[in-house]
Design a protein that fits this description.
With 269 residues, the chain is of the alpha/beta class. It is built from ten helices and twelve strands.
Length: 269
């Protein structure tokens, strides 16, 4: 068997799944060891390369996580919360690093993921890009420096097929602002305004979501004071940045002690 770590991609037929498969195939640090899709998908039983319109790779798409994860060093997962919970169990059982880019988890689902992290390595982030994770750190620092007289708004934009809002990245940024102020985001988040809402609550952290076209991802954190504003911004123009970050996370997680990690750990921020 090759000494290059093998990585499995879940939800491989999706936009992010195919991007991951392409980036892994182009890498000299990892190799594609498995490809997973849900039961009944028409890619099941096909070579992943041929299914994506290219040359055959020898990797056959399966709907069996245990089969796909067997012998793999890592699993990269940008799917849906319920699927990710099942993959977490299978990855822990296989001893594979579980890199989670899935967003939209409920508090109960996050608790369930946390319990699995006691048995395996998880690296989870609402966004895998270096730039976004630097933005998270900057947001925390600015929030530490400014009091609640500065209103905080997180504005995000994504393509018209994104199913969750606010985005996982927007929530990461909101959490960073809340941490900087020493409060729980759940207590100060304002995730929707419509109609006669009244004046803004002092100390609230607001969220706005834009959906349209093929926007890869844009995030602004606005600190609005009297007579001035500070705007921190990240714009993604290529989905490959998320795939490259996920591969970096997979390599970082190999050999780590079981636990829940994030991209700030991976990047040493």
């Amino acid at each position: 068997m090759s000494e290059i770590p093998g990585v499995v991609v879940t939800g491989v037929s999706g936009r992010m799944g195919q991007m991951l498969a392409h980036e892994i195939a182009a890498s000299d640090k990892v190799r594609l060891a498995g490809a997973l899709e849900h039961g009944g998908h028409d890619w099941i039983g096909r070579d992943i390369g041929a299914a994506m319109g290219g040359a055959e790779t020898g990797v056959i798409v399966t709907d069996d996580p245990a089969e796909a994860f067997r012998g793999a060093a890592a699993v990269v997962d940008f799917t849906a919360p319920s699927a990710t919970l099942a993959f977490a169990e299978a990855a822990a059982a296989a001893g594979a690093v579980h890199v989670i880019g899935t967003t939209g988890f409920s508090d109960e689902q996050l608790d369930a993921l946390g319990r699995v992290a006691g048995r395996g390595v998880q690296v989870r982030a609402g966004n895998m890009s270096l730039g976004v994770n630097l933005l998270v750190g900057l947001t925390r620092k600015v929030a530490e420096a400014l009091d609640a007289d500065w209103d905080v708004e997180v504005v995000e934009a994504h393509h018209n097929r994104k199913v969750d809002a606010p985005s996982g990245t927007a929530l990461m940024l909101g959490e960073a602002a809340a941490e900087g102020r020493g409060v729980a985001l759940s207590r100060v988040a304002d995730r929707g305004r419509d109609g006669m809402t009244g004046a803004r609550t002092r100390g609230a952290i607001g969220f706005s979501a834009i959906r349209g076209g093929d926007i890869v991802g844009e995030h602004d954190v606005i600190f609005a004071g009297e007579g001035e504003r500070i705007v921190l911004r990240h714009v993604a123009t290529d989905r490959a940045i998320f795939a490259r970050g996920a591969i970096r996370a997979a390599l970082w997680g190999i050999g780590r002690a079981p636990g829940a990690y994030d991209m700030s750990d991976v990047l040493g921020l």
